[in-house]
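If you are new to this repository, start here. Below is one unmodified record pulled from the training split, so you can see the exact layout before writing a loader.
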Amino acid sequence: MHGPDFDITIENLSKIEGHTALAVAVKDGRVSEVHLEINENKRFFTQAIRGKPAISAPQTLSRICGTCSIAHHMCCIEAVENAFGIVPSDQTMLLRHLLMNGLMIRDHAMHLYLFCLPDVFKKDSILDFSDKGTEHELIHKAFDIKSVGNAISTIVGGRAVHAPFPVVGGFIKIPKKEDLSALLPKLRATRDAAIEFVDIFLNCRFSLENEGAFVSLINRDYNFLGDELATSLGICIPEHRFADYLAKSVIPYSQAPGFKFEGMPYSVGALARMNLNGSSLRPETKQSLPKAISVFPSKNTFHNNLAQAIEVVQCIDASIAIIESFDPKPETPLQVKPKAGTGVGVIEAPRGTLYYHLDVAQDGRVNRANLVIPTSQNQIKMEKDIGVLVEQCLKRRMPRDKISLEIEKLIRAYDPCMSCATHFLKVNWK
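And here is the target side for that same chain:
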């Protein structure tokens, strides 16, 4: 067992973008500080688009993240369109909703089924799953669901990662009806498996409750491109005013800033979406998942996993509904006429609310860009949760290796950009 004073150090935690580390100090049996150090490599994306045509910014900024490239692409397109006063067609919006559904299915499947599922089964990774029986079948089902998300993204966007078809004002290529219809059997075939995973995460007893606000976009049909923000504090604001409510915090030990909403820690992501927007789920989803949906609103951080699992079913149901009623027509993207303006884009990325702000000059070139990323927004709340978790572990006199595992599980529940590396954390006890 550990003594009253010790440090937990997680060094060089690799992730998709840059690196992160965690340091927890315990004094007299209490957590005195938690430092989640996001040491991102400087990649100069916002500087790279300065002086460049705004219409080319979405493709450039989609390279910020391979996993969520479509989210960055869609958010930047929205910001550019708002700067130029462009209103996309109804068909364009349907295709964007479908593209976002594909992203959510694919991204959630990777996080839940490949990174979090081993925690539920008390395994280090899916490589330790049995090569037969239930565990073996679940892995195949996981890849089938992920494949459906990839297929949607490929048909609608042209590619699952860094999609070339969506542009400012529309799509350069409209999918054929027969190609979209070919997705229906695959979507229906994977729906039962997605529901099975919901049950698995519903029955998972991981729990950590901590105070804080929740923020997400809201709308009438639980899509990820709404235009109004809501909070658990009872505040509703138009998306272009989001930054007015944020207080940016310079974190001296981290290269990524932290944020507070109205002066308090807050979180974004699937848990926030379900807490604030769960009533807008599709009727089919509600009918199939009444017990899981009744869990929300919830303050349990680990219910972010359950919320994501529900969203997979929601996205399958929403995609089926769109494809069944959609008759795509040839359409040329709207003509873009450059002008000076300010554009804000706010969408729901898999990991939470993503904010883009662009200032554009008269010639249509970018003067300045400001991006607020979900993981940065969650950082302060994540640190507080880690502190609460460690103190709970200390009260239970948990061995050090078990505390390390609990920290890993908590970090995974937030699904930050470095979540994929936490299965391989090395914890050094000083």
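Two things worth knowing about this chain: The chain has a mean pLDDT of 88. Residues 85 and 359 are 13 Å apart (CA to CA).
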